[in-house]
Write a structure and sequence with these properties.
The chain is mainly alpha-helical and 171 residues long. It has one domain (8-166). Helices cover 68% and strands 4% of the residues. It has 6 helices and 2 strands; from the N terminus they run ααααββαα. The protein has a two-stranded antiparallel sheet. Helix 1 (8-26) packs antiparallel against helix 3 and helix 4 packs antiparallel against helix 5 (129-159). The radius of gyration is 18 Å and the shape is elongated. It starts with 7 loop residues before the first helix and ends in a 5-residue tail after the last helix. Bound molecules: protoporphyrin IX containing FE (2 copies). Residues 21, 24-25, 28-31, 34, 42-43, 46-47, 49, 94-95, 98-99, 101-102, 105, 109, 127, 131, 134-135, 138-139, 141 line the site of one protoporphyrin IX containing FE. Keywords: Cell membrane, Electron transport, Heme, Iron, Membrane, Metal-binding, Transmembrane, Transmembrane helix, Transport.
C-alpha cells in the first residue's frame, strides 16, 4: 500500500517543533525564580515555536498536507482536523502569553541576541491571569500532544492504517 505523506518541510517542522515544545516545557519555571533568574533557554525555545509555526501554516495552506485517508467516518475525521487546529492555536497563543507574562514580570527577552519589545508594562506583585493561563496552558499542551501521540500510535500499530508513515521521511 502506498501512503500519501505530508511534504518534507511539514514533516521536518512537525518533529523539530515537537522536540522544541517538550524542551520548552522542561526548561520552564514559575514564580519568583523567573524574576531573579530568568529561564533564558525557555524563552528561546518558546520563541522558536512561534517563529516556526509561520512557515508551517504557510506550507500547510500551500498543500503540504495529504488528503485524509478514505473518509469512512466523517465525524472522526472532523475531530482529527479540529484537534490539529487546536494544537496550532496552542503553538501560537502559548508563546504569546509567555511573552506577555515576561513583560509583566519585568524580565527582558531576546531572540538570537535581538532584544524584543515588552508586550506589557512591569508590575510589582503577581503577573496576573494571562501569566496563569500561560503556566497552565503549557502543561495542557503537553497533555494534548501526548494524547495526540497515543492516538497516532494506536492508528499505526492497532488499526494499521499507516498514519505514522504519513508523518515520516523513512520509506
Ligand atoms: C511552546 C512554548 C512554551 C511552553 C510549552 C511553555 C511552558 C511553560 C510552563 C509549563 C510554565 C510554568 C512553569 C511553572 O510554573 O513551573 C511557563 C512559565 C513561563 N513561561 Fe513559558 N512556555 C512556552 C513559551 C514561552 C515564551 C515564548 C515565553 C516568553 C518569552 C515564555 C515565558 C514564560 C514566563 C515568563 C513564565 C513564568 C510565568 C509566571 O511565573 O507567572 N514562555 N512556561
Ligand atoms: C511523539 C510525539 C508525536 C507523534 C507520535 C505525532 C504523530 C503525528 C502523526 C502520525 C501525524 C499525522 C496524522 C495524519 O495522518 O494526518 C501528526 C500530525 C500532526 N501533529 Fe503530531 N505527533 C507528535 C507530537 C506532536 C506535537 C508535540 C505537536 C504540537 C503541539 C503535534 C502537532 C501535530 C499537528 C498540528 C498535526 C497535523 C499536521 C500538521 O499540520 O503538521 N504533534 N502527528
Amino acid at each position: 500500500m502506498t501512503t500519501a505523506r505530508y511534504s518534507k518541510t511539514m514533516i521536518v517542522l512537525h518533529w523539530v517543533m515537537a522536540v522544541l515544545i517538550l524542551a520548552a516545557w522542561l526548561t520552564s519555571e514559575g514564580g519568583r525564580h523567573v524574576r531573579e533568574n530568568p529561564p533564558v533557554l525557555h524563552f528561546w525555545l518558546g520563541f522558536s515555536v512561534l517563529v516556526l509555526v509561520i512557515p508551517r501554516i504557510i506550507s500547510r495552506l500551500l498543500g503540504g498536507a495529504p488528503e485524509m485517508e478514505a473518509p469512512r467516518r466523517p465525524l472522526l475525521d472532523l475531530a482529527a482536523r479540529a484537534g490539529h487546529w487546536v494544537l496550532y492555536a496552542f503553538m501560537i497563543l502559548l508563546p504569546l502569553t509567555g511573552w506577555y507574562a515576561a513583560g509583566r514580570l519585568g524580565v527582558p527577552v531576546t531572540f538570537f541576541g535581538l532584544p524584543l519589545p515588552a508586550l506589557a508594562a512591569p508590575v510589582q506583585g503577581a503577573p496576573g491571569w494571562i501569566a496563569e493561563v500561560h503556566e497552565t496552558g503549557g502543561t495542557v499542551l503537553l497533555w494534548l500532544a501526548g494524547f495526540h501521540a497515543v492516538l497516532a500510535l494506536w492508528h499505526q500499530f492497532v488499526l494499521r492504517d499507516g498514519t505514522l508513515t504519513r508523518m515520516s521521511l523513512v520509506r
